Every structure is written in C-alpha cells, then in structure tokens.
Amino acid sequence: MNIVAKTRRDMLFSMLRIRRVQERIEADYMQDRMKTPVHLCVGQEAIAAGVCATLRRDDSIQSNHRSHGHYLAKGGNLPALIAELHCRSTGCSKGYGGSMHVVDVSVGHLGTSSIVGGGIPIGTGIGLAFQMQKSDKVSVIFFGDGAADEGVLYESLNYAMLKKLPVVFVLEDNHWAVCSPRSTRQVADNVFLKGAAKDLLFAAKIDGNDAALVYQTAKKAVDRARKGQGPSFIVCDTYRILGHAGCKAQDPAGYRDTCEIDAWACKCPVDTFRAACLADGTVDQALLDEWERDIASEIEAAFRFALESPLPGPQDLHKHLFSE
Amino acid sequence: MPWSRIATDQNEPEFFRENELPGRRITYAEAIREGLRQALALDERVFVMGQGVDDPSGMFGATRNLHQEFGRDRVFDTPLAETALTGIAVGAAMAGQRPVYFHNRPDFLYLAMDQIVNHAAKWSYMFGGAVNVPLVLWACIGRGWGSAAQHSQANQGMFMHAPGLKLVMPSTCYDAKGLMLAAIKDPNPVLIIEHRFNFKQKGLVPEEMYTVPLGKGVVRRPGKDVTVVGVSHLAMDAFHAAQELAAESGIDAEVIDPRTLRPLDEELILESVRKTGRLVVADTGWKTGGVTAEIAAMVAEKAFKYLRAPIKRVAAPDLPTPSGHTLESAYYIGQPDIKKAMIEVMAE
C-alpha cells in the first residue's frame, strides 16, 4: 500500500511535533512549574502519528497515562495541553486532570484514564455506541504492555468480537511497566495473536517504530471497522526511551541496561521516517527547517499562554463533580 | 418458598403520601418494568443490558420480555465480565447512549469497582466537566433462603463513600418507577440498589411517566416524639414499628425514607430532628463506616444542640451474612429492632 505524499508529510510533521513537545516538557520539568506527573512518549511517536493519520476528526480515541502523543496526533489543542500541565484554568481539563487526564471532545478525544487498562473497556463501549448509532465512526484504544497484563483486555476483546464492534485495539509494547520488564510478567506473545479466527479479529504484530507500517496496518484495521467487519488487535513493538515518569534525571539507574536504551535510540522512529521522507522527496531540508521553526514558536506560544493563564482557586474546588 | 419466586403478598401500608399522582395498584417489579418500558419507547438512546435481562425470570420481573418488544439490540444479555461490561456501559454513555446495566446482586458490583469508582464516578470532575457519564447501574440485595455471604450484601455504604456517584434506594412501587426514570434522565452515573423484600409489595403507581427527584427524601409518617430514618425496606419496617408504638404507648414517631443516599436530603432529616430531638437510623448495611454512621454523624454535626438523647443506630452486625436459617434470623435486623431502639431513645 502506497501512502500519498500529503499523508506522509502530515505524519512526519505530527511525529516531529510530538517529539519537540516532549523534549520541551522534559527540559522544563525540573523547574517544577508543571506540578503533575508526566509520562513522556519519546520513542513511541510513530504509533500515535501513524494510527491517527488513518482517522477522521469524528472518530474516537482512548489513551492512557502516557497521553501526550495520542492527544496531539488526534488533533488535540496544544496550548490547552500545556496549560493543563501547568495546572491552569485554561487547561484542557481546567486544571482538574493534569498530564494523565487530558481531553479534547472537539476531536473525538473523550478523556484518558490513568488506571492501567481502564480505557480499554471504555473505548470498547464507545465503539458499541457508534454501532448503535449506525454511524461508521471508529473507536481506537491505545494501551501498553502493562495493560495487556490486565484481564479486562480479554473481556473487552471478547465482547468486541462477539458484537463485531468498530474498535481497534493498539497495544504499544514498550517493554517496560514502570521498572518491570515484560519478561517477568508475560510468558510470550499475546495469546490473541494466535488465538482468534481471522474473521473475528484482524491481528498483527508489527515494528511500531516504522511509521509507514503502522499507518498501513492501522488503515486495514480502521477500514475493516468502518465497514462493520469488526475489531482488530495490533501489537506495536517499540521502546520507552525515557523513564516511567518525569524527566531523564528522574529515571532511576540500575533496573535496565543502558545498552538496551542506546540500541533502541538508534531505531528512533522520528529519525528513520524523516530520513525516508527526505530520501524519497516527500520533504526537503528547507521544509523541515521551516517546520522546526514553526513548531518551536508554537511551543513557545503554548508555554507562554500556559504561564500567563489563571490558576483555579478554592472557589472552583466543588465544581464539575456532577453534570447539571 | 425460595426467594427466587418470592410472592407479592402484601399491599404497601397506608403511609403518608406527599405530592403523589393518583395510580392503580401494581407490583414492585411491574412498576420498574413500566418505567423502563416507557424510557425505551421515549428515547432511542436508552438500552438495557445485564446478565439475564432477557431470561424467563427477567431480573425478578423488572425487565421481563422487554427484549421481545424492543429487540435484542436494545435489551440484551451480557457476558459475566463485570469490569469490562461496566466500562463498556461507561464508554457508551460518554458517546451519547443511555445505558441501564442490571446486576442480580450488588455483591457482583465489587468486580466492577474499578470502572464504577475510578472511572464513572470521576470522569466529569477529572476533565473539568468536559465529558459526562449518563449511566444507570441497578442491583438487588438478596435476603433469605441461605443466600449466604456473597449473595446478600447490603453494600450501599461502600458506594455512598464515593463522590461522583448518585445512590438511590427506593422502598415503594411509586418511587421504584419514578426514581428509575429520574436516574435514566440524570446526566450522571446513578446506582440504584434495590432490596429483594421490596418485590413482595403492591402499590399505587400512575400509568403515565413521572420522575421522583434524586436527593429528595419523604416523610412516610409525620410525628413529633422521635425521628426514624429507615433505608430501603426498613422504611416500611420503621413505619409498621411506629404504628405499633403509637397504638401501644402513644409515642408518635416521624418516619423518614431518604430514598436517595447520595445526594442525601439532609435538610429533611435535620428539620425533623430539630422538632423531635431524638433520632433512630436504620439501614440494611453494616454498622461500621456505613450509612447509619454517616447519617448519625451528619446530625451530630449539624443539629447536636437539638438532640435530647444519644442517637441510636440499627444496622447489620459487622459480619458476613451466615447461610443457615437459624444464624440468618439472628443476623438480620428489622421491625422489632427499630421498635426497641425507639423505646430506648425515648427512655433517655
């Protein structure tokens, strides 16, 4: 499957933008202006960008505590994200959510859970609603290998297959759950890669750092869902370059081999895809330079907006528990 | 007779009625079913799900044969996977549907605690009101016939503790229908905890649609000497106990049925206590950290100077429910315990 040049450009721009936003958060984090536990997705950008490039604005995503990449790739508002990290009233969740609970309803992002696996049945239920509404909208769920430890994944996949729901389950296997390697938690490949009949579930395991491959596989899954043919399960192999939470300086030493990090850093999804796009003429250096300038000024403006925004106060504490 | 085929053998007592529309006498199950049926007919976003909602017993009759009228896309059986199915209901609610998810027993809600407490109850607040969850959960407390420790828990106290969840415990046929319709209409997660004993009742229920407001209690018997707050079927037990006591000794008790525990109609209880100066609180759940503890603490905080005697609590002992009928009858509380508590509180 060829990917049209515009889509390739959009994906590369999206990945670059996610990376630069993460880097800026990382660089600023020790100044303690962002008083919220951030979980950065450096090294995993191809999955968010590749999958979301196959989606329409009115499709829905469920994300998780490592939320920034999905939010931005789906079109979530950047200043509102940065303001949320700074606990401001102008944040996407008005300062009630923080980094782990971001939302942008205008682009089909209905909020993220930070309970590992929590978004999986919710995204499945969003798919059920789409089916009941006889729409061709698709619900995508991003979750990690930690969430694949949870029983709720199997309950949700079963139900999605049973009802042929328009749901795409995207497992981002970044090899680590906090400081626990996958090998101490799971015996082998996920059982659903082998276990389900093809007509019930389209299942694939792919290199999650290959943006084009992510797009192509997600496109198959999303098309299938849109046609009412049922769910898919895509396992994307990737790696968490930074620590579980916070910035580089906060990643404790000793739980993983730094050679492992270095090896994966060589397989950087942004570098790889940028080189491919330069090589085939999708972009040229001049365009990349322009993007870098645009992204830098957009980020600068977003941080300025955040810092100039008001903080919620005690008068806001009791708001929003219930909807009127 | 096993509780699974419990007889509807009693008419509701002639308690004080306030602002009720005229109705005809139907069973408790029929009242719930009628509300559901009207909601399904009125609003195509409403659907009914749960393990066994389309089986012949139809959730004690509350959902019986609704699938025949509305089809299995609107009224459907579910896997027993309570965590996922609750999350699925939560997701469907966020995306514009109005799910009503039935469970036979509130014991099974523990399996879905993560989705109920971590997700449904927090979603509006966590996102500054950006997304709401119009979800109704329903479960019915079992009692008797050796149901034992895992099929008879009155665990409303657990759910009363969680902010963001509305908690409803009806006791009359009228309220069972009106509160169900109010719960479906509400844009927030609402948990309705029923009690199997309520299903014995027949009561006056209007045929038309109506709602009973969430957060509004009701006086079942006006009185001046002692206030009795009775939750769920204990509102009826309290009413009977009060009637007995009035006949026997002239003590005039005011019986309050809170109907919803969250939000709690604090003012109704406080107003009564300010008048009577005495309070008995009766709940089917455990005593420690439970509903009676909360209501007693609220009154002690807000109306202490009006109290003329220590508050008395009537609640289940802090034990799992035993199975054998001799132990079971020692375990459960009801009308005699409420009467005894009223006498004691009057003697202070």
How would you sum up this structure, described in words?
The complex is a heterodimer of chains A (324) and B (348). With 324 residues, chain A is of the alpha/beta class. Helices cover 42% and strands 10% of the residues of chain A. Chain A has a five-stranded parallel β-sheet with strand order 1-2-3-7-6, with helices on both faces. Chain A has a two-stranded antiparallel sheet with strand order 4-5. The radius of gyration of chain A is 19 Å and the shape is globular. With 348 residues, chain B is of the alpha/beta class. Chain B folds into two domains: 184 residues, 3-Layer(aba) Sandwich (Rossmann fold), CATH 3.40.50.970; 130 residues, Rossmann fold (3-Layer(aba) Sandwich). Chain B is 36% helix and 20% strand. Chain B is built from twelve helices and 15 strands. The longest helix of chain B is centred in the C-terminal third of the chain and has 17 residues. Chain B is globular, with a radius of gyration of 19 Å. The mean pLDDT of chain B is 95. Chains A and B meet through helix 5 and helix 6 of A and helix 3, helix 4 and helix 5 of B.
Question: What's the short story on this structure?
Answer:
By secondary structure, chain A is an alpha/beta fold. Chain A is built from eleven helices and seven strands.
Q: How do the strands and helices of this protein lay out in sequence?
A:
The complex is a heterodimer of chains A (324) and B (348).
Chain A: H1 5-28, H2 45-52, E1 60-62, H3 68-73, H4 78-85, H5 119-132, E2 139-144, H6 151-162, E3 167-173, E4 176-177, E5 180-181, H7 192-195, E6 202-207, H8 211-226, E7 232-237, H9 258-265, H10 269-279, H11 285-308
Parallel strand pairs in A: 1-2, 2-3, 3-7, 6-7
Antiparallel strand pairs in A: 4-5
Helix pairs in contact in A: 1-2, 1-10, 1-11, 2-8, 4-11, 5-6
Chain B: E1 10-11, E2 24-27, H1 28-42, E3 46-50, H2 66-70, E4 75-76, H3 82-94, E5 98-103, H4 113-120, H5 123-126, E6 136-141, H6 156-160, E7 166-168, H7 173-185, E8 190-195, E9 201-205, E10 218-221, E11 226-230, H8 233-249, E12 253-257, E13 260-262, H9 266-276, E14 279-286, H10 291-303, E15 312-316, H11 325-331, H12 335-347
Parallel strand pairs in B: 1-9, 3-4, 3-5, 5-6, 6-8, 7-8, 11-12, 11-14, 14-15
Antiparallel strand pairs in B: 2-9, 7-13, 10-12
